[in-house]
Amino acid sequence: MTLLATQGLSKHFAGLQAVRGVDLDLPRGEVRALIGPNGAGKTTLVGMICGRIAPSSGTVHFDGRDITALPAHRRINLGMAYTFQITSVFARLDAAENVALAARRRVRGEGVEAVVQEALARVGLADRAATLAGDLSYGHQRLLEIAMGLAQAPRLLILDEPTQGLAESEIAAFKSLIRDLAGGATILLIEHNMSVVMETANRVTVLNAGEVLAEGAPAEIRADKAVQAAYLGTG
Length: 235
Ligand SMILES: Nc1ncnc2c1ncn2[C@@H]1O[C@H](COP(=O)(O)OP(=O)(O)OP(=O)(O)O)[C@@H](O)[C@H]1O
Prior knowledge:
By secondary structure, the protein is an alpha/beta fold. The chain has 2 domains: about 30-55 and about 65-80 and about 155-235, P-loop containing nucleotide triphosphate hydrolases (Rossmann fold, 3-Layer(aba) Sandwich); about 90-150, no CATH class. About 35% of the residues lie in helices and about 25% in strands. The strands form 2 sheets. It has a 6-stranded mixed β-sheet with strand order 6-7-8-3-9-10, with helices on both faces. The protein has a 4-stranded antiparallel β-sheet with strand order 2-1-4-5, covered by helices on one side. It is globular, with a radius of gyration of 18 Å. The structure holds adenosine-5'-triphosphate (ATP). Adenosine-5'-triphosphate binds near residues 18, 36, 40 and 41.
């Protein structure tokens, strides 16, 4: 059953068509990777899905409801959580306080602490709860952002290049985190690292020059000649 659907979603910026006529159908419980070369329109597409960018045309439906005109904060309240390419943690608050800010969108009082502990444990940061976010490594800050997303018990978790800047060991931990979340959560993952895509996604959507070039299981995408030519550079 579809959780997120876009129809004909398009965005042009002063003459540049960044996204053109994207139809996306994301079933509940799926881990979907969104890939494509630099400038393909991935961030713009996700910006329209989460309400940070107004589409030029087209619609976005979430759980059957047309949310095209809904502001970003109302979409968060409906159960969308997203993390960005740039870390957005509060450096002067400790890890637990950062997650508590996110958790308070959903729970109050004593419930917050349990949600915080669980979210930190999920991403492997339980032992860093009292560390100032600004003192965490870059990779741990990215994981903290994901914990902040998880604390909201999102129905849709959108991750924009979560492994960018992570060390190999942190990428391995991220893959197992996504595998662990798979099934329980619906995830839209913008990702450049092909091993992450191949090992975590149920399906892959390939954007090229603002359009959907291909969509399929990871193995199908890897074997697709058009994708190889446009993106993997091995055509
Ligand atoms: N606010 C804006 N104003 C003008 N052009 C923009 C704006 N935002 C994005 N673009 C352009 O739209 C196109 C798509 O950009 P977008 O960031 O969505 O691509 P992307 O696939 O996310 O790229 P990357 O992998 O490099 O993050 C690019 O040509 C970009 O320069």
